Amino acid sequence: MLNLKHTICPSCSTGCGITLISNNKELLGTYPYKRHEINEGKNCKNGRYCFTKYSFNKIDEPSIVNNGKLNESDFKSIIEQFIEDIKNVEPEQFGILCSGNSTNEELDLIKKFSENYGNKLFLYENGFVNLDKTATSYDDINNSKTILIIGDLYDENPLVARRVIMAKENGAKVICADNENKNTTSINSDKYIQFDSVSEFLDSLDEEILDELNEDAIIIFNKVDNEENCQKISEIGLKTNAKILPIYKKCNSKGALNKIDPINLNELKEELKNIEVLLIVNENPLDYITEDDLNSIKKIVTISYFKNDIVNKSDYVIPGKPWAFKEGSYTNSVNTNQNFKIAVPDIVNENLSEIEILMKISEKLDIDL
Ligand code: SF4
User: Fold this and answer.
1) Confidence check on the interface: ipTM exceeds 0.90, yes or no
2) Ligand 1 centre and the CA of 47: distance in Å?
3) What does 79-138 look like in DSSP terms, one character per residue?
4) pLDDT digits 0-9 by tens, 68-99
5) What's the pLDDT score for residue 55?
6) Which residue, judged by its Cα, is nearest atom 4 of ligand 1?
7) I want to staple 174 with a disulfide (CB 3.0 to 4.6 A). Which of 134, 189, 287, 364 is the partner?
8) Residue 311 has what pLDDT?
9) Which residues of the chain are under the pLDDT cut of 70?
């Protein structure tokens, strides 16, 4: 029998609703969530196929990794070895790398664990930081008369771009800036500025554009070079009264940034030199650092439900539960908390959830959570 359940799309930080279709054996597909207030019955390609990420390349068993090959083991042996590894180093030589791929509830637990044990906790969100005054509704886009977009919104966050199209139909002027020669957003904008870097664009923002920014304008950005860019955009917003809307990279980047101060890339690389044991929770740091940056770490344990580069580089891997198999919440780019429940109740997934894994580790380390 087919099972249709509403949930939140995990493919970007917009927070669209989707309906997952499954039978009692597997995830079959998606269907737009018709009444969802953010996407109003539309989903983009990344949303429609979000379930494939969790169906292909999945990891079913806790495994020991040897030269990129996964050899099935069992949870008890891996946890025992991991606990021994942690106990053999000082708390500050043990690090946890988390990200906006985790739910708010998982991040709360990771944070509490780290505070109680005294280990290092790292969050890197692609140069994004938590800014104070950002737009709290996508309706702010519809109501704007001038929209400045930094990055390719149409390709990366199509359901936010849909709001731009609606505003444009109501007469809004759209200015796009990006480093591509041409992108989907630039083609659909009134003015396009090609830059070498976001930093260079912000440093040389011309008066003509600044004059367009006022209380009826919004700056939407899904691309930054670094944390300073975020601060600079925030300052431009304050100076001109334009609203600002960062569109973060991961489904719960905003939730993660609300809880944990992010580290910048250079600091992260430096900090990793002092780490002996690293636990990576649903993140692939090889998207932004190199294998060399991890070379001094003696043990890497990764919680991941699918194979990726960092799993191959790890010593052990423990599969967690994909979002469709657990409940929790994500906070989207307009800071709305979105709860979701188990979306595939008829499919058996025997993996422990990330929360159960962390609870088991904390019990062994006598950490009171
Ligand atoms: S815009 Fe983002 S959240 Fe919405 S359907 Fe596409 S990938 Fe999913």
Assistant:
1) yes
2) 5
3) HHHHHHHHHTS-GGGEEEEE-TTS-HHHHHHHHHHHHHH--EEEE--TT----SS----T
4) 889 999 999 999 999 999 999 999 999 999 99
5) 73
6) 16
7) 189
8) 95
9) none
Sheet holding 146-150, edge to edge: 191-194, 173-178, 146-150, 217-221, 243-246
β-pairing verdict for 299-303 and 316-318 = parallel
Is 174 strand, coil or helix?
strand
The helix (H) or strand (E) run that includes residue 303 is strand 299-303
Q: Which residues contact 36 (CB under 8 A, 6 or more apart)?
A: 6, 16, 17
Q: Where are the domains of the chain?
A: 63-127+254-321+350-364, 139-246
Alpha helices in the chain (DSSP H): 45-48, 52-55, 75-87, 104-117, 139-142, 153-156, 158-169, 184-187, 198-203, 207-212, 227-240, 253-259, 265-272, 309-313, 354-364
Residue nearest to atom 2 of ligand 1 (CA): 12
Q: Which protein residues are within 6 Å of ligand 1, measured from CB?
A: 9, 11-12, 14, 16, 39, 43-44, 46-47, 157-159
Q: Which of 19, 31, 159 to mutate to test the pocket of ligand 1 (most atoms within 8 A of CB)?
A: 159
Amino acid (1-letter code) at residue 120? K
Query: What architecture is domain 63-127+254-321+350-364?
Result: 3-Layer(aba) Sandwich (3.40)
Tokens 């030269």 belong to residue: 67
φ, ψ of residue 244 to 5 degrees: the values are: -125, 145
Give the β-pairing of 69-72 and 243-246: unpaired
Alpha carbons 369 and 65: distance in angstroms, whole number: 30
Of 7, 8, 44, the one to substitute when testing ligand 1's pocket (max ligand atoms within 8 A of C-beta) is: 44
**How far does the centroid of ligand 1 lie from the alpha carbon of residue 51, in Å?**
12
* CATH entry 3.40.50.720 includes domain 139-246: yes
Could you tell which of 18, 46, 48, 50 is best to mutate to test the pocket of ligand 1, judged by most ligand atoms within 8 Å of the CB? 46
pLDDT of residue 26: 86
pLDDT at residue 244 in the model? 98
